[in-house]
């Protein structure tokens, strides 16, 4: 379908005719606008494309929902949390450089564009996702610090991609950290997510090898009667304080400005974002030994509904100055929500969009489970870094978590029609 008429927002572009067609034919069923203010999506059930698995009308709204691959920003940043995720890093193969990287990004973008629209993979489709529709599949690509040496593009590497500082509580495994290329896959169907993973791994061919892979999950959409903020594996409501797309400064905080400061050679990142990825193990056996009251003191919020200990409901602002009858702050001085609050960090903010993980039982008998912490910001030095520095010094939660791996990736803007992700860097 060719359609040049688009309904445009700062975050997303979607074909107006497709949008109206979807609403007209199926009500708002196939449309989802994120609880955290996500990407506009459309129903593939009413918009079957050539090669689409699943005939029109045979899909539920969950299966039929598609997220746009093209737009100002890549999908998978403001898209509502999906039920399944795969996060992986690749290293370019020995001898592979800019030419091979460009060809790979072209192949990957071609595959992602098709799969996100609910079509089959361009070559030798495995059939894993037949019948399921796009199921809100998103594929997001990023470049690590080492990518620029490998491709001879260090002059175009933004300073924002400089390695993160060391933090005293880090227990990082180098083998599961960093990497030349980063891929985030999310979908509301496990087979759809795995199908994309397999297709992208095959596309890598001889050009790149998987460095590490992590698999995660979230609550399934529709499991609660109305959308709720997700819970993590400690049982806390997690995501309340996230910046909202309706906030006036949201774009400024999360996305690199189109014509921002800095050398013109870095303009390829305009509309992009930086992802910090951390595998954070939760020491769940120790956590579960704490009473609920103790757990709430660690975070500074109630476990039941996420409300601040200073009162109100989930979205009531924290009253950080409120004192209890004992003269002490009601939200303890080392509570995680206090220390991470933008007001305590010169306004530093990030968009947290994590997956939980569970990789079985560790040799010591404890669950190898926790949070695949992924946060998005226009500049890590005004997002993750100052907040983590502060958490590192005195967060009550530190006793119950362990940062085991780390990555920082430059995530280019969304591709235009016919473009591949990163083309403005690799061919600019
Ligand atoms: C450096 C950034 C952060 C890391 C690492 C981090 C780890 C982490 N957090 C939780 C659970 C919660 N975090 C909450 C709030 C919150 N956390 C961060 C940053 C990091 N968290 C921020 C910026 C905020 C928001 C603060 C605010 O705006 O007021 C909360 C409270 C609810 C919420 O706002 O989301 C919980 C719960 C875990 C379990 C964890 C590591 C495993
Ligand atoms: Fe947090």
Inertia-based shape? globular
Number of strands: 13
Helix content: 10-25%
Overall number of structural domains: 1
Ions and ligands: ligand L6N33NVT, fe (ii) ion
| Mean pLDDT across all amino acids | 88
Largest sheet, strands/sense/barrel: 5 strands, antiparallel
So how many helices? 11
What is the percentage of strand-forming residues? 15-25%
**Helix-strand category:** alpha+beta
Q: What is the element string, with H for helices and E for strands? A: EEHEHEEHEHEHEHEHHHEEEHEH
Radius of gyration: 21 Å
Q: Which regions have little confidence, pLDDT < 50, spanning 5+ residues? A: 1-40, 44-48
State the separation between the terminal residues, measured CA to CA.
29 Å
Enzyme class: oxidoreductase
Function: Involved in the recovery of exogenous heme iron. Extracts iron from heme while preserving the protoporphyrin ring intact.
Keywords: Heme, Iron, Lyase, Metal-binding, Oxidoreductase, Peroxidase, Signal
Organism: Streptomyces racemochromogenes
């Amino acid at each position: 379908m060719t359609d040049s008429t688009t309904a445009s927002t700062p975050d997303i572009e979607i074909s107006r005719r497709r949008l109206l067609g979807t609403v007209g034919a199926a009500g708002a069923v196939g449309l989802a606008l994120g609880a955290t203010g996500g990407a506009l999506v459309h129903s593939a059930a009413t918009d079957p494309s050539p090669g689409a698995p699943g005939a029109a009308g045979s899909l539920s709204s969950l299966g039929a929902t598609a997220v746009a691959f093209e737009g100002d920003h890549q999908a998978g940043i403001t898209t509502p949390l999906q039920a399944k995720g795969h996060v992986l890093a690749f290293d370019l193969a020995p001898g592979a450089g800019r030419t091979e990287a460009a060809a790979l990004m072209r192949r990957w973008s071609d595959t992602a564009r098709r799969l996100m629209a609910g079509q089959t993979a361009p070559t030798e489709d495995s059939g894993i996702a037949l019948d399921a529709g796009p199921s809100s599949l998103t594929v997001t690509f990023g470049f690590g610090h080492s990518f620029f040496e490998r491709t001879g593009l260090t002059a175009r590497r933004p300073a924002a991609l400089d390695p993160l500082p060391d933090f005293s509580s880090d227990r990082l495994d180098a083998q599961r950290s960093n990497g030349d290329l980063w891929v985030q896959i999310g979908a509301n169907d496990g087979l759809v997510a795995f199908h994309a993973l397999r297709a992208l791994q095959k596309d890598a061919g001889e050009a790149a090898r998987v460095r590490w892979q992590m698999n995660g999950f979230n609550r399934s959409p529709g499991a609660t009667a109305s959308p709720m903020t997700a819970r993590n594996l400690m049982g806390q409501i997690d995501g309340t304080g996230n910046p909202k797309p309706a906030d006036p400064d949201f774009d400024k905080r999360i996305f690199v400005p189109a014509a921002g400061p800095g050398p013109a050679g870095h303009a390829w990142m305009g509309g992009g974002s930086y992802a910090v990825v951390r595998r954070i193990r939760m020491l769940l056996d120790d956590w579960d030994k704490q009473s609920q009251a103790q757990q709430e003191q660690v975070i500074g919020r109630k476990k039941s509904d996420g409300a601040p200990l200073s009162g109100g409901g989930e979205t009531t602002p924290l009253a950080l100055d409120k004192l209890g009858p004992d003269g002490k702050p009601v939200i303890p001085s080392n509570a995680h929500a206090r220390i991470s609050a933008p007001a305590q960090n010169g306004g530093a903010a990030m968009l947290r969009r994590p997956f939980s993980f569970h990789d079985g039982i560790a040799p010591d008998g404890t669950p190898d489970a926790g949070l695949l912490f992924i946060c998005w910001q226009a500049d890590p030095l005004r997002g993750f870094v100052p907040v983590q520095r502060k958490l590192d010094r005195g967060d009550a939660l530190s006793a119950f978590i362990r940062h085991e791996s780390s990555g920082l990736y430059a995530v280019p803007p969304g591709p235009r029609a016919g473009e591949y992700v990163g083309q403005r860097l690799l061919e600019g």
